[in-house]
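Moderator note: this is an archived Q&A kept for reference. The question asked for a predicted structure of one protein chain; the sequence and the answer are reproduced below.
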Amino acid sequence: MSVLLVEAFYGGSHKQLMDLLQEELQDDCVLCTLPAKKWHWKARTAALYFMQTVPTSANYRVLFASSVLNLAELVALRPDLGKLKKVLYFHENQLAYPVQKCQERDFQYGYNQVLSWFMPEHKLAHLQKVIGVKRNGDAYQLEGLPGQQKSGDLMKNSNAHGESGLCTPEHEGLPSPSPAPERPNKAGASESTNPCQEEDKQHLTFNLCNIMSGWDSQQRPLHVAWPHRWEHDKDPETFFKVLLKLKEKDLPFHVSVLGEAFTEIPDIFSEAKKALGSSVLHWGYLPSKDDYFQALCMADVVISTAKHEFFGVAMVEAVYCGCYPLCPKALVYPEIFPAEYLYSTPEQLFKRLQNFCKRPDTVRKHLYKGETAGFSWAALGGKFRSLLAAEPREDL
């Protein structure tokens, strides 16, 4: 077990990546996790928890963690981990993450990321020689790698599969120390093996084929999917505003609102569900990946209205399942999707959907003009393995 995997928020895209790495590395790693609840609390206290629970071993060579963890604190609390090669994976940028209310930003979380990413001069010189990293003022720039902002987030799953269903408020204290979870086998890799995860899963069954069996393919209304977390950074207000405008004009469509909800659900979801009425085909999180992918395969259009996105694997998964993507002409999307799938304003999004509602066959016959194969684990697994390799004489 030369690789130590540490995840302070073991759910959703965080869990998916750790499970994939664990499967890729087999017996050459040990995984230490905390459940996917109260990420603010985890960002502040996870280092103290892992200081007590990460097993001591002389075999560790590499430490891989997500940026929820304050890596600088953990290394300070556990000097034995300081000598390891460290790989920090950023699922988001807390210095740019949109605030929900008009209030002063809590810079603690971004500050944690800055501390964890800071490199002393001798490390910077080494990286500049090996992979072309250079300092630009107080920042670090990676040369020669297109799309560097998203490079650490290629497997992000915004639908948060692997987490529980609707969460309920629970005590925010650190859980009692417990043994590291056993490595899941290949068939059960999507199930949590972390003893800290005590919440029950909301088991749902889903069969869109049965739901839509009464519709002729030519008469079937446009089916729109929204497979994102039910949180403010995904901008559900804009999405529902556009749909309600379609409904006001008596345009036929169906909508499946997928993704996971957490303790605090924006009010717009309950309001929109009531207002959309019979247009709703499915509403809520699907714990089963088979059900989730079946829902995407039955949809015609997948939409993002996100205000913060490093990659957005839910959109790529939907495209892989045959959906026509509509994404903001901003954030990471222009790096992934051809121009015809981008919109600049909510008005443009409305006009595109209005035309699709009138002629749904245009999207059903459409062949996607971009590429998705490069984002698959088949293409990326080996790269991650190389990243986690440490040679015995490497200057760590």
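Archived answer notes: Residues 43 and 101 are 20 Å apart (CA to CA).
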